[in-house]
Amino acid sequence: xxxxxxxxxxxxxxxxxxxxxxxxxxxxxxxxxxxxxxxxxxxxxxxxxxxxxxxxxxxxxxxxxxxxxxxxxxxxxxxxxxxxxxxxxxxxxxxxxxxxxxxxxxxxxxxxxxxxxxxxxxxxx
Length: 125
Hints:
By secondary structure, the chain is mainly alpha-helical. It has helices at residues 5-23, 29-88, 109-124. It is flat, with a radius of gyration of 32 Å. The chain crosses the membrane at residues 6-24, 36-54.
């Protein structure tokens, strides 16, 4: 965020004083103070919102530009790598090689979850 909470407080104080002195000739001191307090609370929140939204908008614009630049970098890297393989005589076609029975030794997640739940139930008893 831009600034600190003091920025919010200063804006709220300026709003309070402005509303207080502008409404004092037409209203009582109590009414002017209440209106000034309401204005200061509102200005505090509006200032906070503005401090939050400005970096968010600028960061989203920068992130879109970064995404476009990174996509350009990836496509140029892929093109360079392909050109190097073609120039060196390597085959650019890749063949699909599926997993064998022994290549995949992961425990079934459903079985693993059920064993965990069973151990929790036995721990409670």
